[in-house]
Specification:
Number of helices: 11
Shape: globular
Structural class: alpha/beta
Strand content: 15-25%
Strand order of the largest sheet: 9-7-5-2-10-1-11-15-19-20
Bound molecules: guanosine-5'-diphosphate, 6-O-phosphoryl inosine monophosphate, magnesium ion
Length: 421
């Protein structure tokens, strides 16, 4: 059995959580493979809204196992709050598992994140301040603490040694305020709760499951343009968000990867700093933000909005090996007379549909095309045939330009607002 992948093709917040939740009952296991609580995956079930940060979006399906994979970085405090919130809503956590090799975010990682951002001034990344970068730095620097360590007798000493190192580092940065004593107490309390989650070796767990014919879906976090290697570096996150990250983030061989489903909004958004060629600075961008409720699920920051960017999508489709597309939030464009998209870029007088080395440093002018909008409500429509012609024209145009079929069209936050096929 192959392992399928679902991931975002833009700068995050494409609606991954909603689609994973919808598809989850077709799978035995949903597994997060990278990122941490910088993610905010929103799921709306019968008017109830949940935002998941670390827990996979299959948690609402009780027959589905949800694995936090080895590539994920885990903040025990955030995870324990997330669990408490879900339990309060009546959910069982019996179907949650965590990899022994997942790295732990310490309170000092968060402060280092804040201090690093403060040191950058205008060049700051706009990080979510969840300690993601410093935790992955300790992972690759071979200093990190992992979930499996919490069960070892000298865990406390390891924690103290690492925080001591971090405190020395914090002294060379601009000062940030933190309450060491209280936060550390809270963190260790949260570790006790983390100890109650069944720990697995994700590489064995996933491979054995696949050998037994079980179906696994890997759930991406962030978006491909935030990938540490292929995103708009340095304005990226600190993990591989692309399909390749599934292999290292769960311990599966590339040949086990099956179908790749790429999610894109019908327009484009970005939260945080960094280049965004099709960003709209005027009224239209403001209108998209307002209608789309484009405010960060993790930080509440306003998301920057713009038209869909075809060169950017072609790039992430290529890197991820996308087989099928899902276009979300088409309903947000219901009232627009014209829908625009950038079909190529103008860089130094040359037309291209390839992304340059440095999007930030290049003078990019997107070449826009427009199509008539559909100007109607889509609420009652439940099949592709019922959709207005102008929307179908837009979808067909996307398929034609991107060379990948659109399998899902999402037209509202709830499970039922999805057109399949
Ligand atoms: P994720 O990080 O990719 O899971 O996406 P987020 O949850 O951060 O942001 C997507 C937002 O759009 C959430 O508020 C979702 O509830 C909402 N959403 C998802 N799909 C649709 C859709 O088709 N239409 C509308 N109106 N909202 C949607
Ligand atoms: P989901 O999974 C959108 C952005 C931050 C910042 C940059 C680096 O909900 O799509 P980090 O905290 O990772 O060091 O921040 O990445 N970012 C996201 N933007 N959605 C996300 O996750 C994001 N996770 C990180 O805004 O620009
Ligand atoms: Mg999000």
């Amino acid at each position: 059995m192959a392992l399928d992948v679902l991931l975002g093709l833009q700068w995050g917040d494409e609606g991954k959580g909603k689609i994973v939740d919808f598809l989850a009952n077709q799978y035995d296991i949903i597994a997060r493979f990278q990122g941490g609580p910088n993610a905010g995956h929103t799921i709306v079930i019968e008017d109830k809204k949940f935002v998941l940060h670390t827990i996979p979006s299959g948690i609402f399906r009780k027959d589905v196992q949800n694995l936090i994979g080895n590539g994920v970085v885990v903040d025990p405090i955030i995870l324990s709050k997330e669990i408490a919130g879900l339990k309060a809503a009546g959910l069982s956590m019996d179907n949650l598992l965590i990899s022994s090799k997942a790295h732990l975010i310490l309170p000092t990682h968060r402060w280092l994140d804040a201090a690093s951002e403060a040191s950058k001034g205008k060049q700051k990344i706009g990080s979510t301040l969840k300690g993601i970068g410093p935790t992955y730095m300790d992972k690759t620097g071979r200093n990190g603490l992992r979930v499996g360590d919490v069960h070892t007798p000298n865990f406390k000493e390891k924690f103290d040694a690492l925080t001591k190192k971090h405190k020395q580092l914090l002294e060379i940065y601009p000062s940030v305020e933190y309450d060491y004593e209280n936060e550390v107490v809270e963190w260790h309390k949260a570790i006790e709760l983390l100890k109650t989650i069944p720990v697995v070796d994700s590489q064995y767990y996933i491979n054995n499951a696949l050998d037994q014919g079980k179906k696994v879906l890997a759930e991406g976090a962030q978006g491909s343009m935030l990938d540490i290697d292929f995103g708009t570096y340095p304005f990226v996150t600190s993990s591989n968000t692309v399909t390749a990250g599934v292999c290292t983030g769960l311990g599966v061989a590339p040949k086990r990867v099956g179908k790749v489903l790429g999610i894109t909004k019908a327009y484009c958004t970005r939260v945080g700093s960094g280049p965004f060629p099709t960003e709209l600075h005027g009224e239209v961008g403001e209108e998209i933000r307002k209608l789309g409720g484009e405010f960060g699920a993790t930080t509440g920051r306003p998301r920057r909005c713009g038209w869909i960017d075809i060169p950017q999508l072609k790039y992430t489709i290529m890197i991820n090996g996308v087989d099928e597309l899902c276009v979300t939030k088409v309903d947000i464009l219901n009232t627009f007379d014209q829908i625009s998209f950038a079909d190529s870029y103008q860089i130094n007088g040359e037309k291209t549909d390839e992304l340059p080395f440095d999007l930030e440093g290049s003078e990019i002018t997107p070449n826009y095309e427009s199509m008539p909008g559909w100007n109607c409500d889509l609420e009652e429509m439940s099949t592709r045939n019922e959709l207005p012609e102008a929307l179908l024209n837009y979808i067909n145009k996307l398929e034609e330009m991107l060379g990948v079929p659109v399998k899902y069209i999402s037209k509202g936050p709830e499970r039922k607002n999805l057109i399949v096929g």
